[in-house]
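Action item from last week, closing it out:
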Amino acid sequence: MYFREIIEENIDKTGMKRIFSTIQKHFINKLENKPKKLYPFDNSDQDKVIDIYIPLFNFIEEFVTSNYSDAMDIFNTFIVKYNPEGTYESLDYLVELPDKILNDMFNERVIILSKYFRTSPFLIYKEQYANYGMPIYWIEDEDSHFSIGDLSEIKNACYEYVKDRYYDLSEVRDVFGDETVLNFSYVNDRFIPTLSRESADQRLDSMGIGGMLNFLLDYDSEESIKLLTRYQNILDKSKEDVENNYKGLLDDLIEEITEYIFEILSEEYEDMITNDLTEFLNELGYLDTEFGYYKISKIPNWLEFEWEEFYDEQASEMDYHYLSPYERLDIYKGESSNYYILKVDY
């Protein structure tokens, strides 16, 4: 006869005392530290789950009854009726532990897991470490570990997963390619003025006077036209006249043209570094092209990678089930929000 039937029909109370006395003698009395009480559950004493509750339930299933429902009835009644002395006189009714009582004793995540896996919260143990920020629990009936979190927590877990997965730029290049590296690269603001002026200097050095005059012609601003006109007026003089009377004026004008173009180029490079870094790197010879895509031939020491933005993008595009090494994701639909349950290792 099932335990529930024995209790409800008030049959063989002596037999039930014998069951409880057996549990007391062969389980409780063999504990290194006999508990003063087993009920109600103390949330601050998680070790009691792994040291007493789970082994107690397993003992009942192995030596008293293999019927899960009956074993749970015995378990619940025993922990409520338990006393260190082992005197069990009042066994007149079956102990019920309604949701309200369990909700007051256990935290919300344990209750959700117990409902989802249809098990007792006394058989769920919270581990010390987390799965990318999501708490991990041992579910005895599932013989497995699971982590659980709401939407905000699982999004944060994705971020932590990506951050843990990618921390070396060479790995980002291998997995995503140089185009991704370029998309998330930048130059620190403190380096931009110096870098833009150095690039303007190099460009000017390669121009020569003929290149500078062509630049002024192409730039086609009011100031560039004036400079070209003044230069042409001097050139219209005879060579001898220029040498004797306009040499200093010509040198001053070339210096003025150089400074004017230098400022234009500096501004252009500063804008390019800020808004089109790939083009800037290409112009400076740091990039090659392969099958229509840019390849980085050399990474300059002033180029930095925006890790946080990279992590944010990868995390936002990540499928949640990858947080589980088994790629198992279950969803518990709560009243106010969903909870994501992942099978994990520990």
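Closing note: The chain has 14 helices and nine strands.
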